[in-house]
Amino acid sequence: MTRLWFSRHPLSPAVLAAMTVLTPVSSLVAQTTTGESVPTPTDTTIVQATDLESTRRSSAPDAMTVTARLDRARIQLQPATGATVHAFSRKALETIPGGDNAGMNSVLLQAPGVAQDSYGQIHVRGDHNEVQFRLDGVQLPEGLNVFGQTLMTRFADNLSLSTGALPVQYGFLQAAVVDINTKNGSTNKGGNVSIYGGARDYFFPSAQYGGQSGKWDYFFTADYVHDRVGIENTTPSFNAPHDLSNQYHFLGHVRYTVDENTRISLIAGVSNAEYQLPNIGGQPMFGDNYSSLLPQAPGSSNLNERQKEITDFGILSLQKTIGAFSLQTSVFSRYSSLGYSPDPNMGDLAYMGISQHAERSVMSTGTQSDVTWRVRPDHTIRFGFQVFAERNITKADATVFNDANQQVNIHTGNGRTGDIYGLYVQDEWQPVRNLTVNYGLRFDGVGEYTDEHQLSPRINVVWRAWKGAALHAGYSRYFTPPPFEVVGGTDLRQFANTSAATDVSRSDTVKAERDHYFDAGIEQVILPGWRVSVDAYYKLAHNLIDEGQFGAPIILSGFNYRRGQVNGYEFSTSYDHGPLSLYGNFAWSRAIGKDITSAQFNFDADDLKYISQHWIHLDHDQRWTASAGGSYTFFYRSGHPTRVSATMVYGSGLRQDSDVPNGGVIPQYATFNMSVVQSFRDLFHSRFLRTTQLRLDVTNLFDHPYMLRSGTGVGVGAPQYGLRRTILTGISQSF
């Protein structure tokens, strides 16, 4: 039975409890006014829709009850009271075209206010990449993945995207929080193997398996991706030149339930990806006489540039409930590296004046603890802390021309060890029955390339003004350290009087961003299953952080605007009834900045001068963003349902240069995707083989060529175009 794709909840758990009857199926947990988490009717529905056979075959119902109660206790550790939350149930993830084969960013594009960019990036509410990912409530340190995605959609049992004025337990990256509740062996018993592929050499086998034995449960998934769409096409042609990619992913989860109040879990992941960088034909050489100096250099359409990305991480967590206290404490580590290999025939030197083997890596290790104390029915105190210790290493071996037109080699490299930390305390208070106030303080600090700290107050208010309605308003003071992996030292003196010399010799250190963030909105249930919401936000930023690609390696580098402003509004509606699900969103946003105050050597001197005196649009500013979708399941009460679904994404266009930096707009676009999935229960009449599923997915159904980037703009490296029509098919078998 098809369920709601996603729902929008700017509510506290206490508010959700009062609206249990009208809450859509993608809601996970409701909380009573006493602060105790209780299952809603939708919890049961999710279990049935997600894994009916696993539930039916379970031999340990008591273990499942303990698992569900501990899961609810963990969710209570980080409520998003007053924030705007878009929840994707397991059924919603399966319904989106591509299903579990879809990338995580493709899923998030279905939420309002999420703009699409190249290299798999997304921008939420006019911010650049300031999205934090959490696995079972534990924040992952940032990595170097630019166009590779470590986290697989099939590893998620459900996920949520939280935006707005976030409570104080969320720190560091605060444009949005993506919290992924992972699958486990208790509710996902058995295995599944699938083969998916089609156009452009797309070949995508995958497997997953989960189970339970006594107090242990486990879940593992792995896949391999081979295709010619690893990076966006640099031309509007149907096939990109030089765009082969190979990717390997593994994610695993093992848990041990000590008793009904104690659980230990380990999550681990590995990602290894190799990409060819697409070429742009017809490019002129860097200098007038380079054709004679480099006769062996290939044409720009025949360059052979490559990039490799590796990410490994692990999270070890202890969850414990003691009377009125619930806690989760975790230790984690993440290693991420990126390596760029230039054209072996000095093509980079011929067309850019520099050929460099570039490598960058970051190792992050830390701990996070969150505690909930239910003091009284109307007061719930939460407190905790996060600490990351990080090591960043950057090195490059570059070949350039000196003033005598001789090739010279220059080695650069540096490393830095630092830390970021944050601690918080907050009180969720219900002064009257229909009013919830969540207020608190957060203290953050960074000691890496910059040494700064800040005390940040935050407050959110949620009022259930009348039946089916919730109004919310909030203020958050934010402190965002510059991502360690996008800040690197550069000795500009080594490149003086060479073909890689810069127009600007200044390189101030990237600083932490400090924001005042305001958010308010209303949600109204019109009829059972149909809800509408409107939200507005405004951000005032000092030292606003942006990122750009400067040079051939696809490595993002950070810089600051001294002043920044971001504001906008969002509208969302959804309807879910029986086999029919519909949703629609649109958002308006404006993001502007003034005066670049760090990493100035990356920019043209005239651009720096203009931006120092004028407000400009940020390169990722998109005025209008919209998404919509629907699904209908035929024969949904039978054992052989047929599901048809479709989605749409619209963008009014990111920025490009005109007569002023970022003064132009890329043409608007709209793309449509569709999916048909046929399921067969017990097709082979074998007790070892369960559901068989056939699927057909079409991306960009009408084959509309559209541009994501024109190759111009502040910090924009090369042109990129969206994927042309792509037809993929697959078969999966559960056992």
UniProtKB/TrEMBL annotation:
It is a multi-pass membrane protein. Residues 1-30 form the signal peptide. Residues 211-701 form the TonB-dependent receptor-like beta-barrel domain. GO terms for biological process: siderophore transmembrane transport. GO terms for molecular function: siderophore uptake transmembrane transporter activity. GO terms for cellular component: cell outer membrane. SUPFAM superfamilies: Porins (SSF56935). Keywords: Cell outer membrane, Membrane, Receptor, Signal, TonB box, Transmembrane, Transmembrane beta strand, Transport. It comes from the Bacteria. Pfam families: TonB_dep_Rec_b-barrel (PF00593). It is found in: Cell outer membrane. Belongs to the TonB-dependent receptor family. This is Outer membrane colicin I receptor. It comes from Komagataeibacter diospyri.
